[in-house]
User: Fold this.
Amino acid sequence: MIVADRKPIEEIIQQVEAHRNVLILGCNECVTVCEAGGKKEVGILASALRMYFINNGKDMRIDEITLERQCDHEYLEEIRDRIDRYDAVVSLACGVGVQFMAEKYLSKPVYPGVNTCFLGVTEKRGLWTERCQACGQCILANTAGICPISRCAKRILNGPCGGSTKGKCEVNKDLDCAWQLIVDRLKSLGRMDDYEKLFSIKDWSTDRAGGPRKVVREDVQI
Amino acid sequence: MRLSYPSSTKIIRVPCTGKVDILHILRAFEKGADGVYAVGCMEGDCHFNSGNFRARKRVEQAKKLLDTVGVGGERVQMFNLSSAEGPRFAEYAREMDQRIRELGPNPIKLAMKKAA
Ligand code: SF4
Ligand code: SF4
Assistant:
């Protein structure tokens, strides 16, 4: 999923204080799971903002809606009949949702309510870690299912580098060396032969190096 | 035991303090409560293992948010006791009642009255 983290409420207060009618818009998917932008976080933020503005003598209307997703037309359309009641929206979806909201409702200021961090997993409640950088050419088949693009600080394809010490990365001693993990797992799969195969130069044009990307699937287009 | 405690205390029963969410605490203040406290079992004695620890964390989060929005984090507190300690329950109620009286009414309530 896309992992996001909450923005400090002070920052959100600054964003919205020039407005009068503000919609806090949550998303039921990724940001709900990482407890940053779901219905509950919408409720907490809206409640805190209402109290802040009442307390500061400012007449603000702050409403709450949480959509199934903010990265699909049909869900964002659900607020079309209500959007004119608001003069700004704080979207607690990831940056994708914030932007789709902004594209769809051109005249409505949209502010991000979370910091979008990475594609990752819930290791345990309250701990999310990165697993993928969406490089567009997945190589997990050859790396024992462990991604050196996202998990090796240097993104190297034929690792480990000389900085790997006792299974940890030289960038941070609490960080597992991705290549150590790869070697360990290749061993337990009995596939150390794979480790001998050199990776050729990766085509980075499908990563960000090629500019903004798109996936076109004519077979599913109508 | 027929203990008396301040009549300002309204009791909301929950199956475990782990049920108390930060949202419940915030809503209470939005609706005009002057203070909120959660009374959980002794730490380590939770029937559900960690309910009272969850509650404590949520109370701490609520404190921070209430400070930020100007309501004051000292209006919310977590207490622990064992279910056999009725007198202590009454004692906590008095302690909280006194603290809130010293702090005065919830500023949100006053601001809303002013705005009305
Ligand atoms: S808007 Fe972002 S957080 Fe919500 S479902 Fe789409 S990708 Fe996930
Ligand atoms: S190789 Fe690329 S697509 Fe595969 S997990 Fe790593 S970053 Fe993601």
Summary: The pocket of iron/sulfur cluster (ligand 2) is lined by residues A 132-135, 138-140, 147, 149-150 (CB under 6 Å).
